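User: Please work through this fold.
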Amino acid sequence: MSEQTSGQPRRTMRQNLKELPAQAWLLTIGATINRFASFATVFLVLYLRSHGFSLPKAGAAVAAVGIGELVASVLGGHLADRIGRRNTIALSMFCSAASMLALSQVRPFLAILAVAFLAGTFAELYRPAGAALVADVVPEGQRVTAYAVLRFAINLGFAAGVATAGLLADHSFFLVFATDAASSIIFGVIALLSFPDNRSPAGTQGEGRGGYRRILSDRAFAFFLVASALVALVYFQQQTTLPIHVLRQGLSKTDFGLLLSLNGLIVVVFELPISVVTMRVPARQALSVGFLLIGLGFALTAVAHSMPMLFVTVGVWTVGEMISAPVGYAYVADLAPKELRGRYQGLYGLFWASGTVTGPILGGLLFTVSANGFWALCGVLGLAASALTFGIRQRLVTLGEDDVAAIERAPGGLKP
């Protein structure tokens, strides 16, 4: 996403959607089918409890899935650059199908933990490859729209799928795992038949750790990763301290569910139209506004003691999410050299997913000390992430000439 956008003609959302390449649509269709049925891990606690496992053991299995997902961010990015986007997606989906079926059959607890880890790893292994594939096939000026379409479809598929999963689970938990596996196989076949075999040339196969040294020397990307980790810590409070706050106000679990439903509804209805605006705005500015709104939305939770006020706070941080999420993927794609796109996206995914670990731990500790103080801290972290992102380019002028030249050679690097 270029930092220079003022000369671009205004385009409608329909024009942007019509001009997306076929492979971007096929990726969206495959990911949507897969996400529609990616509900086995959502029901994992209920499944294990039905087999007599204690809640702590069931929770440990879910944690194993989460650890696997973190590993997948780095491993998936590496594989996307080494064996190609198509092969990584196919490997991810076929192995995910096998691990889901295995998870429905294993009984020893240690075996469940091991298979749950593999299930989490393989289910998410495709994500960096998918993000890199979008950057490969979609022109720079259309990437925000492409990532917004992908997020829209995945969110819609998951929302519809969870409701369907409940019906399946009432009949048989095996149907939940089997349907999840079937959707993965479908996505894997779509990948093999439709996506290009873009394995790295022989000259780049041996980069290994050298590739990561190049990535970490990209100061713009390094600062953006730090900013992303800060705002992710705030964003994932929706899963930890926010429900506690809601119950403390005398509201119900149903009310909390309505708040999260509002988030999903707003994203589905408004993210694509918003992407038409954000694609014309310099990336750093859009990301800074988005991060600031996420922090502000959670900070306002301190004064939200009723459902109407909570709806307002959710609306604020959801707008921030819709602004920053598609632009973030596009910004990373533009910073990355083609041969490192998978690893760039993988590291971005890892730092964002770090919020699922840091959020519950720090949130749980600090919220018990001072709830209002913690919400204020969320605002400060959002402001810090916003300022850090907006200041990326100014910080880069202090780099040596070799560093600047390397970044300028990257697609979407420093612009004149």
Q: What stands out?
A: The two ends are 14 Å apart (CA to CA). The longest helix spans residues 143-171.
